[in-house]
Amino acid sequence: MSSYDNAIKLVEEACGNGKEVVIALATISDSAGASGNPRPAVRMVCAYYEDGDFYVSTDARSTKMLEIEKNSEVAGCVMDWFSFKGTAENLGWVMDDDNSQIRATFKEVFDWFEEEGEMDSPDSIVLRITATEGTLIDHKMKFGQKVYEIDFMGEVLN
Fold it and tell me: Widest CA span of the chain, in angstroms?
């Protein structure tokens, strides 16, 4: 297997296979810092990972979604081993027919989803986060490499 394949396998093992994973999701805040420049805003979100994307159940009116509407560039971190940059996209109401498979996965992965997902509200949406590049640290060196700099278009950069 290539270094890229090994890195993707590590991400799949840790985040995929129908697991809930908590990620720190950073967006660009609407409010400026003391210097007048935009500043980052970060929050913890529950997600699941499938085929290169993280999926999050959220409210369209939340601060993160208002920030993503203005700038879809995001960053994320799965504590202690994987950080990434990517893009975020509102896939619409969780009850839309196009989201039926994601909704079914939400019900399987998130034990809280049916009670707290507010599926009847059109503001209950699916957020897809697509990683474009990242750094993965394999503390166990499962494949003989500790750090992977990944371009999610198919390359390990180191």
Answer: 48
Q: Where are the beta strands (DSSP E) in 9-152?
A: 21-32, 38-50, 53-59, 73-78, 82-93, 124-137, 147-151
CA separation for the pair 61, 66 (Å, rounded): 7
Angle among Cα 141, 25, 144 to the nearest 5 degrees reads: 10
Q: Of 33-37, 43-47, 121-125, where does mean pLDDT reach its minimum?
A: 33-37
**Residue 69 structure tokens:** 């509407």
How far is 105 from 96, CA to CA, in rounded Å?
14
The model's pLDDT over 7-44, given as tens digits with 9 standing for 90+, comes to 999 999 999 888 999 999 999 998 888 898 989 999 99
CA 36/CA 123 separation, integer angstroms:
31
How many residues are listed for the chain in this entry? 158
Global pTM?
0.93
User: Amino acid identity of 78?
Assistant: V
User: Binning pLDDT at 50, 70 and 90, where does residue 1 land?
Assistant: confident
Q: What is the dihedral of CA 84, 54, 113, 118, to 10 degrees?
A: 90
Give how far Cα 108 sits from Cα of 143, 146, 148, Å. Answer: 31, 32, 31
